[in-house]
Every structure is written in C-alpha cells, then in structure tokens.
UniProtKB/TrEMBL annotation:
Keywords: Flavoprotein, FMN, Monooxygenase, Oxidoreductase. This is Luciferase-like domain-containing protein. Residues 152-177 are annotated as: Disordered. Residues 219-476 form the Luciferase-like domain. Signal peptide: none annotated. One of its GO terms (biological process) is alkanesulfonate catabolic process. GO terms for molecular function: alkanesulfonate monooxygenase activity. It comes from the Bacteria.
Length: 509
C-alpha cells in the first residue's frame, strides 16, 4: 500500500474499526486531527456530541491551515458525511494536495466487540448503520475523486480484538494484520522515461559529498571519523565542496570551509578505498594548470583514487573577498571550457606542445602524472554550454534535480555527445542529491523543522526529499534506472561520523 505524501488523508470507518490506532502508528500526532479528540478539548469528553459543532469548526480550521501550507493532514472522523468530505477535498485540491481516503474494512464482529468494551459504547443500532454505510461508501469516494485505500478486511482476525486497556499501551496489533502503508512522494506529471544510458563501467554507486565541517577543536579527528565511517559503510568515495566562504545554503559565513585539495591530501593518508575529489572546484579560483597539478598529486598520493570536479563558479561574494576575478556568466563558462581542456592536456602522456581549441601550451610537462585516467567531472546542468563541455572534455557531468529534470539533462547530454562525436556511454551522469534522511517520520520532520530556515516546511521537505532511508534508496534506484552512474549524497545536517552510519543503508549498491 503506497499512500502519497504529503496528502490529505481521510479516514473512513465505523466506531472501533481502528482508525485512530492506525493514524497513530503511521503519522505524527500533530498531523492527525480527530473529531473525538477535539470534542474532548472543547467539551466534556470524546463522546460529548453536544460539542460536535465546535469540534468540527476547529477541525476545519486545522485542515485549512495544514493544507494551505502543503502539509499532510489526517482527518480522523467517521468519514461518512459527504458534505464535509467535499469541503475538505476542495481545500486540499486548491492547495495541490492529493486526496486519499483510507477505508477501514474491519469485520463487524470486531467493531462490535471493541465497542461493547468501551466506557461509553455507541448504541448497537448506530454502529450497525455505520457498518452498512462503510460498506457502501467506497464507490461514492471513488466517484468524488478520492484515491481509495482499504485497510483490514480479510486480514483482520478477530484475534486482533483488544480491550481498550490492554491494547492502548501498544496499539500495535494492526501491524501484524494489515499491510503497512509506504508513504511516497506525490506523483508528478510530465517527463517520459528516456532510454537508459549505461551507468559507467563501475555500475551504480553512491559517494558522500561533504559540504559542512563542524569539526570543533579537532579537525583531523573529525575528518578521519567521517572517512572511516564512509569507507566502512561502503560509500564509493568522498567529494568535498570547494568554496572560499561557507555558502548560505549550507551554513554561516564564519563556519569553517577548508581548502579541499589540502584536505583531500589528509584524507588520502587514511587506510580506506575511498575515491577522493572535489564537487566542484570553480574554474575561477585557481589557474587550470594549478588544478591539474593538485589533482594529479592527489591521484599519486592516494594510489589512483582521485577525481576532479570542476564548475563555472557562481558566488560573487567569495571571489571579491579573496581578490579573485569574477567574470560574466559567459566569461566563467569560457573559463570552465578552457580549464577542462587544460586539465586534459596536462594529464595526457608526454610533454609535447599543445595547440587546441581554446588552449595553447608551449609544453605539457606535468609531473607527477596521474596514476591512471583521472576522472574529470563537469559540474552544472547548463544545457547550451555546460553539458556540451561535459560531452567534449568530461568523463562525467554533475547535475542536480528531480528524476524528470535528470532525465531531461541526460537527453540533452546525449545530443551533445552525438554532435561532438563522443560515444554516449563514455560520459557518465552523476547527480548531487542533498537529502534529509530521518530514522522515522517524526525524526524526519524534526530535521526539516530544524533545517528549513525561512523556507516553508513542505517546500523544504519536497526539495530535499525528506524521508526515511528506504524511501531514499528507492529514489536512488529510480535515478540509476534512468541512467545515472553515481549519486553524490549530501546531508544538510551532517554533524559527524554517526550521521554517516545513520545513512549507511544508502551506501552500498
Ligand atoms: N485496536 C486493536 N487492534 C487494532 C486496532 C484497534 O486492538 N488493529 C483497538 C484499539 O486499541 C482500541 C479499539 O480497538 O481500543 C478501537 O480502535 P480505535 O483506533 O480507537 O478505533 P476508531 O476507528 O478510531 O474508533 P472510533 O471511531 O470510536 O474513534
Ligand atoms: Mg478514533
């Protein structure tokens, strides 16, 4: 059972069918709005029917507020009132949220027994009517446009029948009798699957991209911890972000952001099999020949484990602050183009003069040379030029975006490959994936709330695919199926080695 998330989730079921229990098992308490709970809040208790109007007024306000913010809301009422359903559905649809109805097809005998065991049972005739209505409501729900899911039915054994006292402590019997729903990101429209590119000679792999360095008093210990944990988890490599000042998307300007080639040198000394490189080094910071020298040195020191990501650079502030020129966008892409060509020239065997398209060098005497072929990754999804540069000079491109965006970039890259006469499978597609990974639903949303800054929670969560490890793994599967060779996973709340261990299930492919 796959329930879209975020969504407006309407529970539909007779008294005692297990709605509230199910909601508590699958959603955060703040995501569930229950007419019974609100009756208790504004009235004398859950069964205070005189408090119904007040309770539903609040319930409607909650549904309005949460759907307007794009947040999941689980409506825990009987779900049998068509007028109320229509109003909630309209709220959700105007906010772009999917409308999901979860129908509790719990055997009548189970509901009756649970009801009878309650302090204030619903009259038997009322329960009988509810049970009849639930049986008939499915077609109505479908006609109203709800995506209908059914819980229970055949699977619910009378043995799951529990007295309030015994079951309220665990409330977990549903887990064994009904299929667990998986929350899935609400389906997006568009983008046909593109034909698949081979995912590089190495097969699909995941590397960790490090963009923040909260290393406290012991930088090297912190780095060692991250690297050993990443290696142990089975990540294929580490990529370091290359910036002169910490970027606002990641942290504060006074947070440490180390020079990556120096830092990679320290990582190269550790006993790991990790590939090591940058994602990405702006072509603006250093003359291309100096990048070639640094990467070749790293390759030699690490026994051939280096890769080099280069991009055009984008943040004016850090350039000004460090006295580094910041040309126009066109100028920077020109620099990237020339840098890629220079790297190729200086990493090639021999010392002969190089006369190329943008670059001429009187000699190419660059020792030490890389151990083998040193992978060059061209960062950026610019379709006219950046992907062209990747097709011309790169071993890989690096793009960011959801599956449909990535598929489109793959198509554009392929066209460039065809035009420059490069075999398509020679240029790997890599994706930078900045992801919020939680241990459970509550942990995930706590992280979103901590990280989102002034961005709306629902927007931040969607942008960073906030979810649990299994959901991220599945999402990566889709990327690999689309032809992606390497996913660079970045954790916006990476604090230390423990976070690497926490996402270890994403490492090995
Ligand atoms: N229960 C259970 N096993 C389940 C589901 C529910 O033992 N799989 C028990 C609950 O612990 C509770 C009772 O059955 O004591 C009714 O479940 P509840 O979730 O409260 O049902 P609702 O549909 O929410 O009932 P109501 O409409 O009365 O709120
Ligand atoms: Mg309930």
């Amino acid at each position: 059972m796959q329930i879209p998330d975020p969504a407006l989730v309407l529970l539909v079921g007779a008294a005692g069918s297990g709605k509230s229990t199910w909601a508590a098992e699958h959603y955060r308490p703040t995501e569930v709005v229950s007419s019974d709970a609100l009756r208790a809040l504004v009235g004398s208790g859950t069964a205070d029917l005189d408090a119904s109007n007040d309770a539903f007024e609040i319930l409607d306000r909650v549904v309005t507020g949460r759907s307007r913010r794009g947040l999941t809301v689980v409506v825990d009422t009987l779900g049998l009132d068509a007028q109320r359903r229509a109003a909630w559905a309209a709220l959700a649809r105007s906010a772009g949220l999917p409308t999901v109805a979860v129908v509790f097809d719990t055997p009548a005998a189970v509901c009756r027994a649970r009801n009878a065991a309650r302090d204030r049972p619903v009259p038997a005739s009322v329960l009988g009517t509810q049970l009849q209505r639930v049986r008939d409501v499915r077609t109505e729900l479908e006609a109203e446009g709800w995506e209908v899911h059914v819980v229970g039915g055949e699977a619910s054994e009378p043995s799951s029948l529990g007295s309030p006292a015994s079951s309220s402590s665990t409330g977990s019997s549903a887990a064994t009798t009904t299929p667990l729903p998986t929350m899935v990101k609400a389906a997006k429209t568009g983008a046909q699957p593109s034909p698949v590119l081979p995912s590089g000679a190495h097969g699909p792999r995941v590397m960790l991209q490090i963009s923040r360095f909260p290393w406290g008093e012991h930088p090297l210990d912190w780095l060692r911890g991250i690297a050993l944990a990443a290696d142990e988890a089975g990540f294929a490599g580490l990529a370091l972000m290359d910036h002169l000042i910490q970027i606002p998307q990641v942290g504060r300007a006074w947070d440490p952001i180390p020079e990556p080639w120096v830092t990679l040198g320290a990582l190269a000394a550790l006993p790991t099999d990790l590939l090591l490189g940058t994602l990405c080094t702006p072509a603006t910071y250093r003359p291309a020949g100096i990048i070639a020298k640094a990467a070749a040195t790293l390759d030699v020191l690490s026994g051939g484990r280096a890769f080099c990501g280069v991009g055009a650079g984008w943040w004016e502030r850090e350039h000004s602050a460090f006295g580094v020129g910041f040309p126009s966008t066109t100028g920077r892409v020109d620099e990237l183009d020339a840098a890629a060509e220079t790297l190729r020239a200086l990493w090639a065997p021999g010392t002969k003069a190089y006369n190329g398209e943008r670059v001429s060098l009187p000699e190419t005497t660059c020792y030490p040379r890389p151990v083998g072929s040193l992978p060059l990754i061209i960062g950026g999804g610019g379709e006219q030029r950046t992907l062209r540069i990747a097709a011309t000079w790169g071993d890989a491109c690096n793009v960011q975006g959801d599956l449909d965006v990535v598929r489109h970039k793959i198509d554009v890259l392929r066209r460039h490959c065809d035009e420059v006469g490069r075999p398509r499978d020679e240029v790997e597609v890599t994706v930078l994936d900045v992801a919020v990974v939680g241990s459970d639903r509550d942990d995930t949303w706590t992280r979103v709330e901590r990280l989102r800054g002034r961005t709306k929670a629902a927007v931040y969560a969607a942008r960073h695919h906030a979810g649990e490890v299994a959901a991220h793994r599945e999402r990566h599967d889709r990327l690999f199926e689309a032809g992606v060779g390497t996913v660079f996973l970045a954790l916006p709340d990476l604090a230390g080695a423990r976070d690497v261990e926490r996402v270890a299930a994403l490492a090995r492919r």
